Amino acid sequence: MQIDLWQWLLGGIAALLVGISKTGIPGAGILVVPLLAAAFGGRQSVGIMLPMLIFGDIFAVAWYKRHAQWDKLIKLLPWVIIGMAAGGLALWLMGKIESSRDYMNIIIGILVLIMLALYFLQGRLGEQLTPTSKIGTASTGISAGFATMVSNAAGPVMQIYMAAHKMPKKQFMGTIAWYFFIINLSKLPVYVILSINNPKKPLITWESLKINLIVIPIILMGVFIGKWILPRISEKAFNNIVLILAGLAAIKLIIG
What we know:
The longest helix has 29 residues, at 169-197. With 256 residues, the chain is mostly helical. Helix 1 (5-23) runs parallel beside helix 10 (216-229). The chain is built from 11 helices and no strands.
């Protein structure tokens, strides 16, 4: 794989943002999806991004594991599994249809904007339609599972779900750290199987793993930057940054 300087630059910025998002500002990770897609193409960027995320997840879990609110995850995980199954099927089909990738990004972006609307309108819509209701939990889980499988883009959906529970920063970080660590690890064998099944359009290759190894120091840098930022930012600013970045990323996914 021939990689140009501009691709390394975008990949390096993405790696830094992965680290920052895992330990400091979760919303920063939303920008990784369009950056890597621009550098390496949609399908290939998915396989490059996953090992980067898992590496960052290890530090997030190590630092915030005691603060996780497991009841929020247990309610969500069954629905996430359903979404992941649908996402796996979509990835398999996208390997056969060249243009499907862009349509998936549009769908994900629309889902995120819907979740944002529900978050801001929850006071008027009533409890049944908020992200914390039974319906909201189911739709969040399915959306997050689908989005994370097809493009590693579940961050906006999950951040809106967590923000709706109005968790303190450390509980927010601990809960989302465990969620993504479990989900990203479970996706890895699926990506490998899909790559073996369709070698002409693989998700993970030896070349992509070499890129992952090279950017490890940059991810580490981001991890420590994020850890430094978290205690220095207010709860209100933290939630506002997460929601603003979620909206911007959703628009980016829709317009391409």
